[in-house]
Design goal:
Distance between the termini: 52 Å
Order of helices and strands: HHHH
Number of domains: 1
Largest sheet: none
Shape: elongated
Length: 72
């Protein structure tokens, strides 16, 4: 397997369509990594403060119905 530096050098040699093809190939890997990290963060409680803040805002009447937002 090539080193990261070699891979970067090879990418520099790609045409724009080839770079787009490479990006499309790599995108699912990034999505999978993102999903795994989000699940880990959720399990670790890293979103509790955000959830509490959102619930407090909703309770205080600081939110709008989704249908209203979609009409705008």
């Amino acid at each position: 397997m090539s080193t990261v530096a070699e891979i970067k050098a090879a990418i520099d040699q790609l045409s724009l369509p080839e770079r787009c093809e490479l990006e499309a190939l790599l995108h699912p890997f990034e999505d999978d990594a993102w999903d795994v990290q989000m699940k880990r963060d959720a399990a670790a409680g890293k979103f509790e403060a955000l959830n509490d803040e959102a619930e407090a805002g909703h309770t205080a009447g600081m939110t709008n119905p989704l249908a209203e937002i979609l009409r705008e």
